[in-house]
Write a structure and sequence with these properties.
The protein has 10 helices and 9 strands. The chain is an alpha+beta fold. It folds into 3 domains: 115 residues, Butyryl-Coa Dehydrogenase, subunit A, domain 1 (Orthogonal Bundle); 99 residues, Butyryl-CoA Dehydrogenase, subunit A, domain 2; 146 residues, Butyryl-CoA Dehydrogenase, subunit A, domain 3, CATH 1.20.140. α6 packs parallel to α8. It is globular. It binds 3-thiaglutaryl-CoA and flavin-adenine dinucleotide. The site of 3-thiaglutaryl-CoA (TGC) has 25 residues, from α4, α6 and α10.
C-alpha cells in the first residue's frame, strides 16, 4: 500500500552547517527521489523478496553508481562527504538498495578504476555508471568469510587464457549482474582480481533464497567450472589481499554513513508516533521511559553523525586509515540496530507491521552488521591498531 513518507532528518547539533550548498542540494535531490520512487514500493518488494529493478535507472541518474569516480569515466566526481550523504539517504530508504549502490560503486567500479588498465576503465566504467551494466563482487566463499585470505577459488595460466575454478557465496547483485569482480588465487598462491562476464561458459549465479534480511536485495552464488578467462580480464595493477580489502575500505565508509540513515529514520518514526499515540490519557511521549529512549537515541545519533563527518573530511584529505573506517562502520551499525530494536518496541504492535519501516530496517541491519566485516572483526581491527597485537589468528 503506498504510504506518505514524512521523514525529517534529525540535526541536534546543527551539523548541516558543516555541509556545503552542493552537499545540501545533493541530499535534497536524493531524499526527494527516495520519498517519491523508493518509499512507496519498498515494503511490497521486501515482503515479496523481490529486487526492485525499476530503481536502477534512477540510482544511476542520481550519480549513486560511482559518486567519487572521475567524470571522464562516467562517475559523478564528487567528494567523500557527498558520497556519504548519498548512501545515508538511500539506506534511510532501504539497506538493500544502498547495498546495490555500494557494490556497483565501491566494489565493482572502484577496483576497475584503481587496479584496472586504461582499456578496462574505458570499456566498463561508463556503462557501470549509467546502470547499462550491473556488477557484483566475489570475495566470500562457503568456507572463507572473515578469513578471505584462505580462499580456494583459483585460476591456472593456460598460455593465451586463464582457467577459473571455485565458488563464491553470499554475493549481492549476483543473480542479475552482467559482470563479476572475482578474487582468486594464481598457481603461485597470489590473490588477483578477474573480470568475469555473464554468458562465459561454465559460469553460473544461482540465487540464494529464504533470507529474513535484505529481502529487497538479490543475493546469490558465483560458480566457476573451468571458466575460460581472457588474459585482458585480469586487473593488472594489484596483487594480494590488499586488493579486495582496499575496495572494502570504500564500501565500509559508505555503510558508516548509510546505517546511520536507518537510525535516523527509526528515531524520526518513533518520535512522531509517540507524540501522536495516546495511552492513559496522554501522548506516550510524555512518559519518562519513552523520553529516555528518545533522548538516548538522539545522543547516539549525534555522536555518530560527528564521527562520520570527521571521517569524510579525513577521506577527502586521503588521511583516513582502514582502522578508522572500521571503527565508524562498527559504531554506526551498532547505533542503528540498537535504535531500531528500541524504536520497534515504542510502536507497540504497530512496530511489527509494514506500515512503518522500523522492522524492515531492523532485519536488514542483521546483514549489515555481518557483511563487509562482522561486528567482532571490526572490533579486532581496532584492537590490533591500538595494541599492535593481532588477535585474529
Ligand atoms: P592481513 O595479513 O592483516 O592483511 C593482508 C594484506 O592486506 C593489507 N590490508 C589492507 N589493505 C587495504 N585496506 C585494508 N582495510 C586492509 N587490511 C589489511 C595488509 O596490509 C596486508 O598487505 P601486505 O602488502 O602486507 O600483504 O590479513 P588477514 O588475512 O590477517 O585478514 C585481516 C582481516 C581479518 C582484517 C581481513 O581479512 C578482513 O577484513 N576480514 C573481513 C572480511 C570481509 O570484510 N569481507 C567482506 C566481503 S564483501 C561484502 O561483504 C560485501 S557486502 C556488500 C553489500 O551488499 O553492501
Ligand atoms: P564467519 O567468518 O564464519 O564468522 C562467523 C562468526 O565467527 C562471526 O560472528 C565472526 O565475527 C566470528 N569470527 C570469525 N573469525 C573470528 C576471529 N578471528 N575471532 C573472533 N571471532 C571470529 N561477500 C562478498 O564477497 N560479496 C558480497 O556482495 C556479499 N554480500 C553479502 C550479502 C549478505 C546479505 C550477506 C549476509 C553477506 C554478504 N557477503 C558478501 C558475505 C559477508 O561479507 C560475510 O558473511 C562476512 O564477511 C562473514 O563471513 P561468514 O558469513 O563466513 O562468517
Amino acid at each position: 500500500m503506498p504510504k506518505t513518507d514524512l521523514y525529517q532528518s534529525p540535526d541536534y547539533y546543527l551539523l548541516d552547517e558543516l555541509l556545503s550548498e552542493e552537499h545540501l542540494l545533493i541530499r535534497k535531490t536524493v531524499r526527494d527521489w527516495v520519498k517519491k520512487e523508493l518509499s512507496p514500493i519498498i515494503e511490497e518488494h521486501a515482503q515479496n523478496a523481490t529486487f526492485p529493478k525499476q530503481l536502477l535507472k534512477g540510482l544511476a541518474e542520481l550519480g549513486a553508481f560511482g559518486p567519487t569516480i572521475p567524470v571522464e569515466y562516467g562517475g559523478a566526481g564528487l567528494d567523500y562527504i557527498a558520497y556519504g550523504i548519498m548512501m545515508q539517504e538511500i539506506e534511510r530508504g532501504d539497506s538493500g538498495i544502498r547495498s546495490t549502490a555500494s557494490v556497483q560503486g565501491s566494489l565493482v567500479m572502484y577496483p576497475i578504476y584503481a587496479y584496472g588498465s586504461e582499456e578496462q576503465r574505458k570499456k566498463y566504467l561508463p556503462k557501470l555508471a549509467s546502470g547499462e551494466m550491473m556488477g557484483c563482487f566475489g570475495l566470500t566463499e562457503p568456507d572463507h568469510g572473515s578469513d578471505p585470505g584462505g580462499m580456494t577459488t583459483n585460476f591456472k595460466d593456460m598460455g593465451d587464457h586463464y582457467l577459473l575454478n571455485g565458488a563464491k557465496m553470499w554475493i549481492s547483485n549476483a543473480p542479475f549482474a552482467d559482470i563479476a569482480v572475482v578474487w582468486a588465487k594464481s598457481e603461485a598462491g597470489k590473490i588477483h582480481g578477474l573480470l568475469v562476464e555473464r554468458g562465459m561458459e561454465g559460469f553460473s549465479t544461482p540465487e540464494t533464497h529464504n533470507k529474513w534480511s535484505l529481502r529487497a536485495s538479490a543475493t546469490g552464488e558465483l560458480v566457476f567450472d573451468n571458466v575460460k578467462i581472457l588474459k585482458g580480464n585480469l586487473l593488472p595493477n594489484v596483487a594480494g589481499l590488499k586488493g579486495p580489502l582496499g575496495c572494502l575500505n570504500q564500501a565500509r565508509y559508505g555503510i558508516a554513513w548509510g546505517a546511520l540513515g536507518c537510525a535516523m529514520d527509526c528515531y524520526d518514526t518513533a518520535l512522531r508516533y509517540t507524540k501522536q499515540r495516546k495511552q492513559f490519557g496522554k501522548p506516550i511521549a510524555a512518559f519518562q521511559l519513552q523520553q529516555k529512549k528518545l533522548a538516548e537515541m538522539i545522543t547516539e545519533i549525534t555522536k555518530a553523525q560527528l564521527l562520520v563527518w570527521r571521517l569524510g573530511i579525513l577521506k577527502n584529505e586521503n588521511r583516513a586509515t582502514p582502522a578508522q573506517i572500521s571503527m565508524a562502520k562498527r559504531n554506526s551499525v551498532e547505533t542503528a540496530i540498537t535504535i531500531a530494536r528500541e524504536a520497534r518496541q515504542m510502536l507497540g504492535g504497530m512496530g511489527i507491521t509494514g506500515e512503518y519501516p522500523i522492522m524492515r530496517h531492523m532485519m536488514n541491519l542483521e546483514s549489515v552488521i555481518t557483511y563487509e566485516g562482522t561486528h567482532d572483526i571490526h572490533l579486532l581491527i581496532t584492537g590490533m591498531d591500538i595494541t599492535g597485537e593481532d588477535a585474529f589468528k
